[in-house]
Amino acid sequence: MTYPIAVRSALVMWTKTNVPELSKVSVLMKQRTKVEETLRAMQHAGAGNLQVISDFDMTLTRFAHCGKRVPTTHNILDHRILIDEDCTQKMRALLNFYYPIEIDASQTSEQKLPLMVEWWTKVHHLLIQQNIQRDMLAQAVRESGVILRDGYEVFFDRLAELQVPLLIFSAGVGDILEEVVRQSRVFHPNVHVISNYMDFDDHGVLRAFKGHLIHTFNKREGALLHAANLPELQGRPNVLLLGDSLGDLTMADGVAQPHHLLTVGFLNDQVEERKESYVEAFDIVLVKDETMEVPNGVLKFITSGGGHAK
Ligand code: TMP
Ligand code: MG
């Protein structure tokens, strides 16, 4: 079949930005055209100009599996080889009180911020009293039921193959996060982690948490303090950002002179209440989508163009 020139070029444009995964029913986009323009620009610049910044809990890990919530890195610590029954009860009470605040659509990040500091501080204080042994963390992870989103291997492996840095930026527990990624066999050399790391004494017993506390709504500070100085991320002005909280949007604030930023938000919980704010804030919103299909499709598109790898 032959088409007039105008139709032909429209078809070329369409096929050029065709990411079939964006047609999934789970996908919401306020400005599809803008997303497509950004995708084309990022594809043109290629893998050599790209970095990926991702949240961990409930972004790279699944939200639920077989009707059960998948544990966050903090919740993986809820194992009898690490903490006692009393600590479990107290951590659960704190979760039940503060988590609804974290995801409350009627409060601003500024309003939530001091309460998040309170939550994390109380939990870390409880954990420090438990004499947690570093040697026991791997077993706790193995027995926790934690699971990364379907298609995670493709995501991690493709980034490694193309030598695109993946910065995992988490308000969870770094030691646990690393163990989850290691046990999933995807801790490739291009993976960098910014998170709350445990500080162990000479006997391998938890005594404190290192550095500045990272919680869901102060990732901007962490980005400016840590990510901005990571040499592997320099000279890569295009960012694919993945998160599940509005606070995750500030994870790219440490990128010097960003050219193109494409944000993907997983909307896991309180869908109706939060849909509007997520669609306003993220370029692509994935509603109750437990897979990496869309990030993988986007990544395949961006990295399959003529842009040169470094
Ligand atoms: P993230 O930045 O990797 O998503 O990690 C932060 C998540 O951890 C956040 O959504 C709340 C969750 N969390 C718990 O599940 N239990 C806890 O005790 C704390 C302090 C946080
Ligand atoms: Mg998260």
UniProtKB/TrEMBL annotation:
GO CC annotation, single: cytoplasm
Transmembrane region(s): none
Subcellular location: Cytoplasm
InterPro entries, alphabetized: HAD-like_sf, HAD_sf, Pyrimidine_nucleotidase_eu
Pfam families found in the cross-reference section: UMPH-1
Signal peptide annotation: none
Catalytic activity as recorded in UniProt: N(7)-methyl-GMP + H2O = N(7)-methylguanosine + phosphate; a ribonucleoside 5'-phosphate + H2O = a ribonucleoside + phosphate; CMP + H2O = cytidine + phosphate
Keywords attached to this entry: Cytoplasm, Hydrolase, Magnesium, Metal-binding, Nucleotide metabolism, Nucleotide-binding
Gene Ontology molecular function: any one: 5'-nucleotidase activity
Keyword Metal-binding: yes
Biological-process GO terms, alphabetical: nucleotide metabolic process
Enzyme Commission code: 3.1.3.5
Principal subcellular localisation of the protein: cytoplasm
Family classification: Belongs to the pyrimidine 5'-nucleotidase family.
Self-association and partners: Monomer.
Function field: Specifically hydrolyzes 7-methylguanosine monophosphate (m(7)GMP) to 7-methylguanosine and inorganic phosphate. The specific activity for m(7)GMP may protect cells against undesired salvage of m(7)GMP and its incorporation into nucleic acids. Also has weak activity for CMP. UMP and purine nucleotides are poor substrates.
Protein's name in the database: 5'-nucleotidase
Organism per entry: Muraenolepis orangiensis (Patagonian moray cod)
